[in-house]
Amino acid sequence: MTDATPDATPDGPLVRHAHDRGVTVLTLDSPHNRNALSRRLVGELHAALAAAAGSAGTRAVLLTHTGTTFCAGADLTEATEATEATEATEATEATDATDGAGTAAAGPLGLARLLRTIIELPKPVVAKVTGHVRAGGLGLLGACDVSVAGPGATFAFTEARLGLAPAVISMPLLPRMDPRAAARYYLTGERFDAAEAARTGLVTLAADDPDAALAPVLAGLRKGSPQGLAESKALVTAEVLRTFDRDTAALAETSARLFASEEAREGMTAFLQRREPSWAR
Question: Which of 15, 35, 139, 251 sits CB 3.0–4.6 Å from 44 for a disulfide?
């Protein structure tokens, strides 16, 4: 779920807010760990999304980032510090994630709650990606309604190389991605570019100028009525939400089990130590 390594933690907010003519702009601003999904960032993003949902002046949310990485997935330092007992507790509570409410938790259940929050938000969520996206960060893209990737964007499912699997993020991704492409990239961990991401259905479109490509999208959303946007979004997200209803408990349990395994500990430790894991050939 990750490709991030830690550095000094900043004192300021990790999710910055702005407003532009009916669009709430949320910027992931945690470059010290490549915008990894730490407990703190996930909590701030939940709060920001809740505020946008309740804002009468917001027609849509634009999710973007600072630095060269949109999101590197889970925070490996937090993951390696998590105990088996904590992960087991999260897995047994996984059915709570089906309501999309409550404070964000760490780990697979917290990620499931965050993704469902984006999908259930009554405002369209648009992503602008100009940097790298890895593992759990791909789940954020899958949860967004529209996404635009620039020429500097790269993508990779790195989980299998760490002894993990893209379990929770499969819920928003597999209903939208080409099955053959998902099989290839889930298994190999290969990097691919924005054009390939658009071809496979991971993002809506690739563009040399993401801002220019987003202009007609945001213009259209600004013209939508709150009711019209909410009900239209509900139509196109219904199947994905049925997947969450059906699979959240099992996939959160799978993810927790994998994170607690000796093989995953070796994979994550090897990554943090910048060495090959024991199984690499």
Answer: 15
Residue range 248-269: mean pLDDT, rounded:
95
Domains and CATH numbers, the chain: 15-210+223-272 (3.90.226.10)
Burial of 55 (0-12, 13-18, 19+ CB in 10 A): middle
Q: What is the pLDDT of residue 107?
A: 84
For the chain, the straight-line distance linking the first and the last C-alpha, in angstroms and rounded, comes to: 22
Model confidence, pTM: 0.88
| Residue-wise pLDDT tens digits, 77-122 | 787 665 444 444 444 443 333 333 233 345 899 999 999 999 999 9
Q: Using CA atoms, how far apart are residues 157 and 166, in angstroms rounded to an integer?
A: 7
Going by their DSSP bridges, the two strands 192-193 and 154-156 should be labelled as antiparallel
SS3 sequence of the chain: CECCCCCCCCCCCCEEEEEECCEEEEEECCHHHCCCECHHHHHHHHHHHHHHHCCCCCCEEEEEECCCEEECEECHHHHHHCCHHHHHHHHHCHHHHHHCCCCCCCHHHHHHHHHHHHHHCCCCEEEEECCEEECHHHHHHHHCCEEEECCCCEEECCHHHHCCCCCCCHHHHCCCCCHHHHHHHHHHCCCEEHHHHHHHCCCCEECCCHHHHHHHHHHHHHCCCHHHHHHHHHHHHHHHHHHHHHHHHHHHHHHHHHHCCHHHHHHHHHHHCCCCCCCCC
Tell me the average pLDDT across 57-77.
94
Read off the tokens for 192: 């691919």
Quick one: which of 43, 19, 39, 17 has its CA closest to 29? 17
Strand partners, 205: 148
